[in-house]
Amino acid sequence: MKLRHGQAVALMVLVTLLWSTAGVVARQLESARSFELTFWRSAFTALSLFLLLPLWQGRGVWARMWQSGALLWVSGTCWAAMFTCFMLALTLTSVANVLITLALGPLLTALIAWLGLGHRLPARTWGAILLAGLGIGWIYGGQIESGGWTGILVAAGVPLSGAINWTLVQRNQQRGNPPDLAPAVLVGAVLSALLTLPLAWPLQASGPDLAWLAGLGFGQLALPCLLSVVCARSLSAPEISLLALLEVLFGIVLAWLGANELPPPRTLQGGALVLGALLANEWLAYRSRARSHSRIRPADGSLAREPA
To answer: By CB neighbour count within 10 A (0-12 exposed, 13-18 middle, 19+ buried), where does 216 fall?
Structure first.
């Protein structure tokens, strides 16, 4: 399936809205906490993907998984770290703090690609990294002073794992071996569930808790992750990065409306700096690409040569 550009944008907005429901749903739970919360969401995500993947890619998906090599399992390990750190972070700090920390993903990806793949970073990206770092420091400054640094470190594991994951995927694409990302999400969900089950035992989730967590596994993770793969066929990586930032806005608003969790001014101020840095970086990148594509064609129809 390949969507038109407008359809892909609309679908990606829906994907970010679905992703953003984790925080407000986590605040509705009665008895499931910490590792048990993470276990159930990962388990329901794995179950959903076991059902969805054959419908989407056919029964041959299982054979292709075993032939994918080590990258599938490395990528799955990264997904497991993201799933686990995200839900644990929600039990340690506010929804707004977690989501703003996740927004650092594009910048961390650029930084790790520079370190691991030798990609050259333009000045605008270095500037965005500096501004976003200042914003995060402003948000968490008071918490560090009071010893509340645990939630920060756990939440930071999500964009860091994501950055490593996408860098590995990009390296294999450059080598002509593009991986199938959807089965890696399944591997990550299974690994996360297996890892957190011993830590979550004995399980104490109530019936309503299980219903909420089943909804998270299917509607907040499994389905939107598959839909995002469809969007990636019609949208560029910068467009997806920009649209994904809507998760921060949607998540904060939903936590405010659904759980009465209004972010303090310090979080809003630092978050504005982080998001502003990301938006400015992507806008400048877009303008740079637009200038590159608007080169004037000579009379013979060939593209004008770029200056050395």
So the answer is: buried
